[in-house]
TrEMBL record:
One of its GO terms (molecular function) is monooxygenase activity. InterPro entries: FAD-bd (IPR002938), FAD/NAD-bd_sf (IPR036188), RIFMO-like (IPR050641). Gene3D superfamilies: 3.30.70.2450, FAD/NAD(P)-binding domain. The keyword Flavoprotein applies. It comes from Bacteriovorax antarcticus. This is FAD-dependent monooxygenase.
Length: 496
C-alpha cells in the first residue's frame, strides 16, 4: 500500500500549479490524471495579472509572457460595422507589475507547467483514475490503472482538481448546485485572413447572438466563440463547423484557411456546497464553474491552488495548526460565490433575447463603452475588476488589523518603485523606522523584514508610516500592526 503526503487528482492548470507550489515549498506530491495524454486544444485562453503575480513568485512569469500575447485592444461590431474600439494594453499601470492580460492557450500553458514540474523531479502519472476514497482513521484512495488493475493509496490529503464532473466531489457527496444556460455555443481555433485577425479582440453583436474573435500569437490564427442559432439546433444533433460557418463568416470579414479544432458545448453556473470534506479538498472546476465572461475560470482555479498549497505545507511542516486549513473554504468560497453571481449577470445581459436587451446591447453599450473607456479611472476599474487583484480575505480569521486604506486580508499593494517579487513564505514590510526589538524578533524567528524609507507618495497606495505589514506566502496581508510590536506578531501566530 502506497503512502504519500498529498495526492492530486487532475493535471489541468489547477492541479499542476498546486503540485508546483507544494514542491517549491518542499512537500512531496503525487499527481495523477485519467487522460493518457495532456490536452491538445486551447480551451481557456486568458491569464490575468493576479495569476501572473503568483507565477512570478514561482519563477515562471517571464516564460509565460515570452510565449503569450499581450491583449492590446477590443473592438465591438454591430451588424458588420465597427462601433467601438477600446484600448486595453497596459491599463493597470501602477497597480501591478503585470498591468495587462495575456493570451496563452491552455494546451501550451499546460505543457509549460508540466515541463516545469518535470524539471523539479515530479512526473504526471497518466491513465490513472480515481474511483473512490474512504476517510476513517486514515484517508485511502482507490485508483484504477490503464491495465485495469486497482491500487489503494494512503495519503494525508486529497486534492480534487478533476474538473466539472469531479469523481472526488461525487464521492464526497457534495451537491453541485446551479443550472445550465439554454444556449449552445461553438468554439473553433482557425487559421484565417481578414482585417479581424489583427491580434485584437473582436466582438460582434447581433440580436440574441454574438461572435467573439480572440487573437492568438501565431500570425493569422484566432479562436472563434459564438452562439449556435436556434434554427440550427436539433435534438441530439452533433454540431460541426458546417452548421455555423455561414453565420460566422457572414458576420465579419473572415476567410477561413483551416480549422485546427472545433467543439460545441453548453455553459453552466454551479457551486459546490463545500470545498472541504475533512482532509479532502475541491479546487477549480471541481468546486465552481461559471460563464466564461471575463476569462475568470482558469485564473480562479489557480488562485485556489496557491491559497491551499502554502496552508497544507505549513501544517505538514508543523508551522501551523491544522485549523488553518479551515480558512481555505472560507476564503475561496466567498470569492467563488461572488464570481458565479457576477458572471451570471454579465452573461444574461449579453445573451438575453428580449427587445429591450437587444436595444441596450446594440445601441447603448458600444458607444457608452467607447466613451467611458477614454477615461483613465474607468480603464483602471476594468483592470481591477478583471485582473483579480481586488480579491480580499478581510472576512478570514487569518486577517487582523487595518490602517488607512489597507486592511488585513487585502493583497499586498504593489510598490512600483520597489519592483520586488514577494517570497513564497511569510515576510514583513515596514516603511519608516523599525524598533530594535522588531528587528531582533524577525532575525531570531527567520522572518524576512523589508525596511524601507518612507516616501510621501506611498500614501496613495494606502500605506501608513511606521506600520508593520505581515504578509502571507500568497501575497495577502495577515496582520496590519500600527504599533509594529513584535509581541503582536507572536500573538498573531499563537492564535492561528
Amino acid at each position: 500500500m502506497n503512502q504519500i503526503r498529498i495526492l492530486i487528482i487532475g493535471a489541468g492548470p489547477t492541479g499542476l500549479v498546486l503540485a508546483i507550489c507544494l514542491t517549491r515549498l518542499g512537500i512531496p506530491v503525487r499527481i495523477v490524471d485519467k487522460e493518457m495524454l495532456p490536452g491538445t486544444t486551447s480551451r481557456a485562453l486568458v491569464l490575468h495579472a493576479r495569476t501572473l503575480e503568483f507565477y512570478e513568485q514561482l519563477g515562471i512569469a517571464s516564460k509565460i509572457i515570452e510565449q503569450g500575447l499581450k491583449f492590446s485592444a477590443a473592438n465591438l461590431w454591430v451588424h458588420g460595422h465597427k462601433k467601438a474600439h477600446i484600448k486595453l494594453g497596459d491599463i493597470g499601470v501602477g497597480l501591478s507589475p503585470f498591468p495587462y492580460m495575456i493570451i496563452f492557450p491552455q494546451d501550451e500553458h499546460e505543457a509549460l507547467l508540466i515541463e516545469e514540474l518535470k524539471n523539479m523531479g515530479v512526473q504526471v502519472q497518466r491513465g490513472i483514475e480515481c474511483l473512490s476514497f474512504e476517510q476513517n482513521h486514515k484517508l485511502s484512495v482507490k485508483l484504477k490503472h490503464p491495465d485495469g488493475s486497482e491500487e489503494i493509496c494512503e495519503t494525508l490529503y486529497l486534492a480534487g482538481c478533476d474538473g466539472a464532473r469531479s469523481q472526488v466531489r461525487q464521492t464526497s457527496k457534495m451537491d453541485f448546485q446551479g443550472s445550465t444556460y439554454s444556449q449552445y455555443f461553438y468554439v473553433a481555433d482557425v487559421q484565417a485572413e481578414g482585417i479581424n485577425t489583427n491580434q485584437q479582440l473582436h466582438l460582434s453583436l447581433d440580436e440574441a447572438d454574438f461572435l467573439a474573435i480572440f487573437p492568438l500569437k501565431q500570425k493569422n490564427h484566432a479562436r472563434l466563440i459564438g452562439v449556435i442559432k436556434e434554427e440550427t439546433k436539433e435534438k441530439d444533433h452533433h454540431f460541426t463547423w458546417d452548421d455555423v460557418k455561414h453565420q460566422a463568416l457572414g458576420r465579419l470579414d473572415l476567410k477561413i484557411k483551416s480549422i485546427k479544432w472545433f467543439s460545441s458545448y453548453r455553459v453552466h453556473h454551479r457551486l459546490a456546497e463545500g470545498f472541504r470534506d475533512k482532509n479532502v479538498f475541491l479546487l477549480g472546476d471541481a468546486a465552481h464553474i461559471h460563464s466564461p465572461v471575463g476569462g475568470q475560470g482558469m485564473n480562479t482555479g489557480i488562485g485556489d491552488a496557491v491559497n491551499l498549497a502554502w496552508k497544507i505545507a505549513a501544517v505538514i511542516k508543523k508551522e501551523a495548526h491544522e485549523t488553518i486549513l479551515d480558512s481555505y473554504e472560507l476564503e475561496r468560497m466567498a470569492f467563488a460565490k461572488r464570481l458565479v453571481a457576477t458572471t451570471d449577470r454579465a452573461f444574461t445581459l449579453i445573451s438575453s433575447t428580449g427587445p429591450l436587451a437587444n436595444f441596450i446591447r446594440l445601441n447603448i453599450t458600444p458607444p457608452l463603452l467607447s466613451f467611458l473607456t477614454k477615461f483613465k479611472f474607468v480603464r483602471l476599474l476594468i483592470f481591477k475588476t478583471l485582473s483579480q487583484i481586488s480579491i480580499n480575505y478581510r472576512m478570514s480569521f487569518l486577517s487582523e488589523g487595518k490602517a488607512g486604506k489597507i486592511h488585513a486580508g487585502d493583497r499586498m499593494p504593489w510598490d512600483e518603485k520597489l519592483k520586488e517579487t514577494l517570497p513564497l513564505k511569510w515576510n514583513a514590510r515596514l516603511y519608516g523606522e523599525a524598533s530594535n526589538q522588531l528587528i531582533e524578533y524577525c532575525r531570531n524567528n527567520s522572518l524576512p523584514l523589508k525596511r524601507l524609507p518612507w516616501r510621501k507618495e506611498l500614501s496613495k497606495y494606502g500605506f501608513v508610516k511606521d506600520c508593520l505589514y505581515l504578509i502571507r506566502p500568497d501575497g495577502y496581508i495577515g496582520l496590519v500592526d500600527l504599533q509594529a510590536n513584535p509581541n503582536n506578531i507572536q500573538q498573531y501566530y499563537k492564535n492561528k
